[in-house]
Amino acid sequence: MKPVSGKTAIRTTCPYCGVGCGVLATPQPGGGLAVTGDPDHPANRGRLCVKGAALAETLGLQGRLLAPRIHGRQAGWDEALDLVARRFSETIARHGPDSVAFYVSGQFLTEDYYVANKLMKGYIGSANIDTNSRLCMASSVAGHRRAFGSDTVPGLYEDLEQADLVVLVGSNLAWCHPVLYQRLAAAKEARPGMRVVVVDPRRTASCDIADLHLALAPGSDAALFNALLAEIDRRGATDGGFLENLSGFDAALQAARLTDPGATGLPARQLAEFLDLWCSTRRVVTLYSQGINQSDSGTDKVNAILNCHLATGRIGRPGMGPFSLTGQPNAMGGREVGGLANMLACHLDIEDPAHREAVQGFWNSPAMAPGPGLKAVEMFRAVEEGRIRALWIMCTNPAASMPDADRVARAIGGCDFVVVSDMMADTDTTRLAHVLLPATGWAEKDGTVTNSERRISRQRRLLPAPGQARDDWRIIADVAARMGWAEGFAWDSPAEIFAEHARLSGLAGALGSDFDISLHAGIGGAEYDALRPFLWPQSARRRGGRFFADGVFHTPDGKGRMVPVNPLLAPDRPFRLNTGRVRDHWHTMTRTGLSPRLSRHIAEPYLEIHPDDARRLRLEPAGLAELWNDRGRAILRVLVTDRVRPGHPFAPIHWTGTTAPSGRVAALVPPLTDPVSGQPASKSAPVSIRPFAAAWYGFAISTRPMRPECRYWAQAVLPGGSQAELAGEALPEDWTGFARALFGTTAEPLVMRDAGRGIMRLAFLEAGRLRAALFVAPRPVALSRSHVATLLGAEAGPSVLAGHPGSDLPDEGATICACFGIGVNSIARAITGQGLVTVEAIGAALRAGTNCGSCRPEIRSLIASSLAAKQAAE
Ligand SMILES: Nc1nc2c(c(=O)[nH]1)N[C@H]1C(S)=C(S)[C@@H](COP(=O)(O)OP(=O)(O)OC[C@H]3O[C@@H](n4cnc5c(=O)[nH]c(N)nc54)[C@H](O)[C@@H]3O)O[C@H]1N2
Ligand SMILES: Nc1nc2c(c(=O)[nH]1)N[C@H]1C(S)=C(S)[C@@H](COP(=O)(O)OP(=O)(O)OC[C@H]3O[C@@H](n4cnc5c(=O)[nH]c(N)nc54)[C@H](O)[C@@H]3O)O[C@H]1N2
Ligand code: SF4
Ligand SMILES: [Mo]
């Protein structure tokens, strides 16, 4: 692919997590990009995690959607846009504005988001636009609005470094916000007196730097923070002066006193240690993420945390405050433009007639949504029931990520008219579309994103749009124009949209909104091109900084509100499945799945389960488990570990119909939502578990795409091909036939059979080079996958069927350092053989952990467990 401009580095922003790292991208002479961290960006100061570092590997055209499609056939843009506009207009004319809906994404750029929201709320006149942020940030938004009167994140990233105590609640920062984690780890190293506490039922990589890990009962966070509020009061640790600025203290305290701290299931001594640490440390930051938000009491959990910070006045001051981490790169931008069904642009209130009138006046638009629209779970229910007859999904993959995912997929499949805008051709959702619209992606589009600390940064175009792909804002504006509203959507560039948004924010600021960037209202194209990262607000009244230290809130009486929280604990079912993320993959893997480097760390969906549970269920380590409930089923690789609590196994969310059809864990999640925010409880799915009765297990590699036909399979890319884990309940009649179908060949394989051990191995060579191989066994296939992967495409003979390296070649084992491809076995040998017991020493010897640093927590834990094993042996 040809870069847009010359060889100079272009500043842009990473498209993955909400840390919002600055990236320097240098187009390479031979095509592609060289990517490094931007040393001048305040979020990362030159650092990148492994996902950011591997961005260049995800830019190929493989799998891209390059032209519009109508019912599967390629179509021109005019035809596709005409059809979309006509069907939406007809549906609205016949069934009213609420019979159509948009489901959008926190991975939209702010400009895309603004345009989608304007079309739905101001022109179609419905608020049926919701976003995947409903699955992600809705409880934080609702908690903020209850307490502050506005959706404001009070603090800054530097607070983490300035705090004396940082509490991570339901956040696996080491894997999900790695650069922020590195900043925290560096601050702790520089100032060893600093304390870190992790509150998570699971022992995660983030516990690596923790002084205390509270493995509380899942869902009991509100009980924990209520216990803290009661303790704050008992000790007189409240801030008397600050209490003057608050309402609701007595009621909140009373509810807290009535709460039984025993509900947390924590040992009394541990609980006391935490309460003492929190109460006796002034500079405290409480950082929280999906362990809080994704719960049927997520909003209450948020307010239980905010209550403690408000009562102690520890908010909006250096090193102090509650801090809600955003997941997606532009979750914050989406909230700013009012992308949620219950919000209005620029943090204005959709339920306030004066706000609605002001926005409609500004837009000079023909309509205005009369009130909130349907939230994600309700929206897909309305699709299922035929109340929504035309649906446009943009930049998200709900058939894989919504709770009750199989039912959501069926609902989409049954809808009269479904449009999907995506970069990729084949996802669980694109497969269900009547019209597919090809969108440009990262590095191909211009716009802005806002990170977790309210910092707005530019994403810049570095590469030309591939094929016929177009920018999302333009696609939406083109449809709006065809619906008869050209004048409201007549921008020529994202810069003009940004300027309009900035002007509207000035009006919002005058109405009392915290979000005001009107200083940029007159911005022109050149200034937009040169825009440096900045913190909002940016207005004549104030620029950047923290919120609420002055005790002035955005509520009608200006007071902060403490909210009484009465924790409800769901009764524990036999198994309560926790779900979340792994270090090197992003959501449904449409982009990270293209990188061999990112696919090395974890190549398969898995189930972390406690040894007691595994024993009782007769689950074999590295075998397969079948999970089911009345909504769906899944088959996952068993990983026996005491990192999780008995009864509370964990599974990652990343696998889909494209990569591992039986690994779609969202199909098991019930559509239970928080009553205030409408956010689903994605961290707790009641499930039953049993061993998957596999008659055979297989492992395959191939230089060309594979077509597995068996109950269990999971594919991952390799340099020069792909690998697949396989398993089936019945033996195929003929392994050669099975392998030929799998690899799409009629060639004659090399075969090695060991009938006694039930082992079967087949290899297909082409011109003396290994084209594909299948290894089958009656038990989980034991062979060095990293070794076998290196054989693909190489010159080979019958010895390829040995499955392990010769004695002179050490086996790397599972990859730990994805940047340099260093495996667990090499690191273990360095620890035990060479006596290296620091991450630095291992880095010096092997280079592991010396590039992006994402694997440093795992290296440290390998050292710790090796030392512990040595001590136990002595
Ligand atoms: N590598 C990677 N990074 C990502 C993403 C990705 O896909 N991959 N996605 C991004 C996005 S959109 C998001 S939203 C963030 C999510 O970032 P995080 O919220 O940090 O990640 P999760 O793994 O979803 O869940 C965090 C933790 O919540 C814990 N948890 C579950 N139930 C409870 C509970 O009841 N109480 C408490 N205290 N904890 C609980 C889980 O055990 C888990 O360790 O990550 C962002 N960053
Ligand atoms: N069980 C369970 N379910 C969960 C969660 C969980 O923890 N547990 N987490 C939830 C959370 S927090 C989140 S954020 C969601 C994420 O879930 P999704 O948003 O569904 O996941 P993604 O894979 O990020 O989907 C983004 C899609 O947009 C496409 N895309 C990328 N860039 C662009 C672009 O510029 N334009 C367009 N038009 N398309 C683009 C990608 O190819 C991809 O298909 O999952 C939620 N679901
Ligand atoms: S921490 Fe990693 S994924 Fe997140 S923005 Fe930075 S480089 Fe991207
Ligand atoms: Mo998210």
From TrEMBL:
GO cellular component terms attached to this protein's record: membrane; oxidoreductase complex
Alphabetical list of Pfam families matching this protein: Fer2_BFD, Molybdop_Fe4S4, Molybdopterin, Molydop_binding
Domain of life: Bacteria
Needed co-factor(s): Mo-bis(molybdopterin guanine dinucleotide); [4Fe-4S] cluster
Assigned keywords, A-Z: 4Fe-4S, Iron, Iron-sulfur, Metal-binding, Molybdenum, Nitrate assimilation, Oxidoreductase
A GO molecular-function annotation: 4 iron, 4 sulfur cluster binding
GO biological process entries: cellular respiration; nitrate assimilation
SUPFAM superfamilies attached to this UniProt entry: ADC-like, Formate dehydrogenase/DMSO reductase, domains 1-3
Domain 4Fe-4S Mo/W bis-MGD-type residue range list: 7-63
Family membership noted in the UniProt record: Belongs to the prokaryotic molybdopterin-containing oxidoreductase family. NasA/NapA/NarB subfamily.
Name of the protein: Nitrate reductase
